[in-house]
Design goal:
The chain has 98 residues and is of the alpha+beta class. It is built from 4 helices and 4 strands. The protein has one domain: 3-Layer(aba) Sandwich (Glutaredoxin), CATH 3.40.30. Strand 3 and strand 4 form a beta hairpin. Helix 2 crosses helix 4.
Length: 98
């Protein structure tokens, strides 16, 4: 995400997801690959990826405890915060449930 405006545009969507990671996190690399698979299913939901090292305001606003973290929004409001990326089907169903 380039700036705060891009984040606000994401939240303006009826449904959206924000994937928070850090580049040196091995678990984040695995979770990112899982999200690649979910995105390949054309789930119809914009998923933005954000290196949390550069977005301290997001970390504070949503009280992020660790990475990887997937924030799911509906109508601009945070509906779910996922830390445990258990499997591709699990992530797919969590995204669909929002």
């Amino acid at each position: 995400m380039e700036n705060e405006q891009a984040f606000q545009e994401l939240r303006a969507q009826p449904k959206a997801a924000l994937y928070l990671y850090t580049p040196m996190c091995g678990t984040c690399q695995v979770a990112g690959k899982m999200l690649d698979v979910v995105e390949a299913t054309n789930i119809g939901l914009p998923i933005k990826r954000v290196n949390l090292n550069y977005y301290e305001t997001i970390a504070r606003e949503f009280e992020i405890e660790s990475v990887p973290c997937l924030l799911l929004f509906k109508d601009g409001k945070l509906k779910k915060k996922i830390y445990a990326f258990q499997s591709v089907p699990y992530i797919y169903e969590e995204i669909r449930s929002v």
